[in-house]
Amino acid sequence: MEISTPQGQEPTPEELKELEKLKAIIESAIADGKLTEPEFARIKAAIRADNKVSYEEIHLVRTLIYDKIASGELERVWE
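RE: above sequence
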């Protein structure tokens, strides 16, 4: 799996569409203040769908999930 890093290139319109889709998936998963293992698996599957992980995708996961877990705003629930 390839990990793309920013090199002064703006995401393409297609990439922006995929980022918005990923953001919607994440926001739906965390709307109740909890993140379950199946929800996180769905997020990872969306990220890996094109066989590459972009900096922007990592940034979304970090800011919308990991930062919120660290601050106590989001609870990770693995059953």
